[in-house]
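We treat protein structure as text, and this decision shapes the records that our systems exchange. The tokens are whole numbers drawn from a learned vocabulary of local backbone shapes. One such record is reproduced below, unchanged from the form in which we store it:
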Amino acid sequence: MEEGHVNCNIDTKGLATIEFGHPSSNALPGKILGKLAKAITEISDDPSCKLILLKSAGNRAFCAGASFDELIAIENIADGKIFFSGFAKVINACRTSSKLIIGRIHGKAVGGGVGIASAMDYAFATEAASIKLSELAVGIGPFVVGPAVQRKIGLSAMSQLAINATAWRSARWAEEKGLYANVYEDIQQMDKGITELVEKLCASNPAAMEQLKSVFWEGTDHWDSLLSERAEISGGLVLSDFTRNAIQSFKKT
């Protein structure tokens, strides 16, 4: 648990629950990102799975984005590309999954966390689930998660997040823009809403849901190469003195 975890299970109704977690506000190092992408892909291929619920551990932040410790340790573009490809793999695993993915966003989402939320097909959230794309504030930019965020909330709203990188946007703002489908006052109410929808979907036609998934993600077949290219951009920027100094300052706040 000290290094983070990804846990999976499938219940008798066909609901697959995937939970990720890390002690550092659910900020995700490369190994956890790799495990998460693999879990989404493998559980999607399980014939007993009808639907996926993606969530994170704890009751505070949903996901604080990338691991700053790993960012600081990057020494060359190749390593940088590999690191940023972690979020790309998770987004692409969600995209290529044949199953609808329901998201449970219980708390704040930052950077890559917003990208993961954007890759979900239907996201529930609490009023505590404010969002921020902080990448530009540390000298990078939301290049990898950008396509997923833009697809979900549009170019205008995504650019607002990307440019004003230190400003939090409320969960209600995210709901208005289409990132969240439903926002609740607290976790208990959110979980009740999730249960109600999950029960309906697990009783729905799996073939119809699979076809809907395909329609929702139409026009994204090029994302394997696109997100790889974006990861290389970020991998180069993280090597600059500006970015290294900005990350060190950010860690102290």
